[in-house]
Amino acid sequence: MPTQLTEERIREVNTRYHDVAADGYDAKWGIDFGDVGQVQVLRKLRKLLGHELDQGFERSLEIGAGTGYFTLNMMRAGIAAEATCTDISPGMLKALQANAQRLGLKVRTVVAEAEALPFEDGTFDLVLGHAVLHHLPSLPRAFAEFHRVLRPGGRVVFAGEPSRLGDRIAAVPKRGALMLAPAWRRLVGARPTPVPRAGDHDHDHELERFVDVHAFEPGQLERHARLAGFRDIRVRGEELTANWFGWFNRALEASAEPADVPLLWRRYAFHGYLALQRLDEALLEPLLPPAIFYNLLLSARRP
Ligand SMILES: C[S@@+](CC[C@H](N)C(=O)[O-])C[C@H]1O[C@@H](n2cnc3c(N)ncnc32)[C@H](O)[C@@H]1O
Question: Which residue, judged by its Cα, is nearest atom 13 of ligand 1?
Fold first, then answer.
């Protein structure tokens, strides 16, 4: 993880990288605003909020909302009434507004850094985020802002944060897939992706390795929340076998021309992932320590 970049440079790189990524983002990450996406988002929120989810939230604020995966699915499910989405990348928020328009949803978008939120104290009853904390250069400042803009009693929830150990473990199936990729491509009849020549590549894609500035131990996340003044803090882990399976298949697929990957294979990869996700949730998540899982989830309350 690069430590030599200044905070300002990390924000600048994140903005550029995500502006460039915005157009193809939903296709690349399988972001869905139909039933599948809604089930995925609600499953995570249920783990974080339990029965409080059923009451819904009057005023929610999403940090690093990207193209709207969480908030737009929450709105479709009727659990976010007046929603505000922020992001450091104007390109991402433009894609979010396009998604909202397509879905017939009205959402406020504001370009803002997580560490300097342009809202009054105590404005929101829920602050949330998905896959964003690991991009933030100053977590103490960001958590202080989440606390400030929440009303007393309000909830903060984050999901999809990479765990340090889980990340290392996930490198094993990725490496395995790279070794097996030529044999797999022959089996499914797919051509390899062309190797980019020097100068072919958009420079901004090369920024990828600089945008992820943290992978977390569960205690670190807990500490940031506590020092900012949050209480009822809970950090849990999710996805283990589902993630190994997912990364293995994703690495195989990335080695082939996308048009050559058979539909049957894509169906097998998708349904296999969902089945293992259910297995992880039912058997492994209650038993194993959070640190071992690929994703961490944090929930807390402003007293
Ligand atoms: C991995 S994407 C996740 C997007 C969305 N939450 C999702 O789950 O699809 C991370 C998002 O965080 C945003 N981001 C990065 N650094 C940020 C910062 N300092 N303040 C606010 N947003 C930031 C990026 O622009 C990007 O949209």
Answer: 64
Q: What is the DSSP pairing of strand 231-238 with strand 295-301?
A: antiparallel
Q: How far is the CA of 145 from the centre of ligand 1 (A)?
A: 16
Please indicate whether residue 10, judged by its CB atom, sits closer than 6 Å to ligand 1: no
* pTM > 0.90: yes
- Regarding the beta carbon of 236 and ligand 1, being less than 6 Å apart is answered no
Per-residue pLDDT tens over the stretch 124-173: 999 999 999 999 999 999 999 999 999 999 999 999 999 999 989 888 99
The token pair that represents 42 in the structure block:
């609600």
What's the gap in Å between 109 CA and the centre of ligand 1? Answer: 13
Q: Which domains does the chain have, with CATH numbers?
A: 7-163+200-239+288-301 (3.40.50.150)
Region of 122 on the Ramachandran plot (φ > 0 left; ψ -120 to 50 alpha; else beta): left
In angstroms, the CA 154 to CA 276 distance is 33
Q: Is 14 in the pocket of ligand 1 (CB under 6 A)?
A: yes
Query: Tens of pLDDT along 230-284?
Result: 999 999 999 999 999 999 999 999 999 999 999 999 999 999 999 999 999 999 9
